[in-house]
Amino acid sequence: MGLTREQYDIIYNKYNDKRLNNSMKQNQRLQDIYNKIPEIKKCDLEISSLAINATRTALGGDISLKEKLKDDISIISERKKALLLSNGYSSDYLDPIYDCAFCQDTGFINGKPCECLQKEISDSLYTSPELADILKTENFDTFNFDYYSDNFIDEVSGVSALDNIETVVDYCQYYIKHFDKTSDNLLFYGGAGRGKTFLINCIAKELLEQSYTVLYLSAVAFFDLLSNITFNKSTSSAFGQITMHELLQCDLLIIDDLGSEMANSFTDSTLFDCLNDRLIHQKSTIISTNLTLADLNRNYSDRIYSRVLGGYTVFKIFGDDIRIKKQITN
After folding, report:
1. Cα(138)–Cα(177) distance, rounded to whole angstroms?
2. Is 70 exceeded by the pLDDT of residue 320?
């Protein structure tokens, strides 16, 4: 699951634009300061002259001026800062301008993707044209409680489908509001067509709009990705396939329709490793499944079942099949 060429170009051009725009801002600041504080321009000219003289003497075999250059530049730089402060500017007003000070708007730190780039990639992967269209229609503004009947009573809990979904949505709103203060994980389970994926998309849209990194994968795509990383030893760049680092470190990982994959020892082992790592590092995960809790216990190892039941807030979503209701209504 990688970026399309179009998505790659958009991100690449965005970083180029950041650097260009910030360079222009910095140059404009410099020209304004030169006009308002001519002494600073003299300082810069002095530094330039010292550097040229030091280079010339070094080429002739005398490196004494070059060794002294750092001290001279430091003295002049302190003079510039003092001039800025005395004229009402911050001492770093003429420093390079960056949207991201960590990677200096390159997207990479020591050859590895910066968090700002990972966010851009996550947004691009989740907000592809197809998914962007889905999020326009599947959000809390369009959530319809009418699909959940007050007459549909769960045999185990004795709660109606309507009362249940109202409780679930209330908690989801709480979850979103306090996302930065908690690392809660959610498990939505219940029959097909009960609105689990719709609910997940509602949460994802809200968190994406708050600039969190959200990675959405169907269970099949999730295990295909892990297989490719594991067996192909994929170390592709951020502009290619999703990396294991991004999978484990994104703010929210969504695994939709767990149980639809072909289960084997590999899927069991890699699922545990991923869920366990994210729990340890307090990274939130949301899982949806059509399986019952008993099915989850049968289909997956005890350690996975224990991690999920012990580390996740679990909600059963029940009621009539919404897809059938929509067909009847339409």
Report:
1. 19
2. yes
Residue that the structure tokens 């500017």 belong to: 89
Q: Is 2 helix (H, G, I), strand (E, B) or coil?
A: strand
Question: pTM here?
Answer: 0.65
Q: Alpha-carbon distance 185 to 167, whole Å?
A: 16
Lowest mean pLDDT among 8-12, 199-203, 258-262: 8-12
Residue 44's Cα: distance from chain center in Å? 41
- The residue whose two tokens read 């950041």 is 18
Go through the chain and tell me how many residues it has: 330
Contacts 24+ apart (CB under 8 A), 195-198: 195/147, 195/148, 195/165, 195/317, 195/319, 195/322, 196/256, 196/288, 196/289, 196/317, 197/138, 197/256, 197/257, 197/288, 198/138, 198/143, 198/322
Phi, psi of 45 (to 5 degrees): -65, -35
DSSP class of 91: T
Residue 153 is given by DSSP the state B
Give residue-wise pLDDT tens across range 120-179: 876 676 555 566 677 788 889 999 999 999 999 999 899 999 999 999 999 999 999 999
Bridge partners, residue 189, by sequence: 289, 316
Residue 60 DSSP class: T
Strand order of the β-sheet with 186-189 is: 214-218, 252-258, 284-289, 186-189, 313-316
**DSSP codes, 125-144:** HHTSHHHHHHHHHSSTTT--
- Report whether 140 contacts 202 (CB < 8 A): yes
- pLDDT tops 90 at residue 68: no
Q: How far apart are CA 181 and CA 166, in angstroms?
A: 23
Q: Are 297 and 305 in contact (CB under 8 A)?
A: yes
* Helices 196-209 and 129-137: angle between axes, nearest 10 degrees: 100
DSSP assignment, residue 291? Answer: S
CA distance 254 to 89: 46
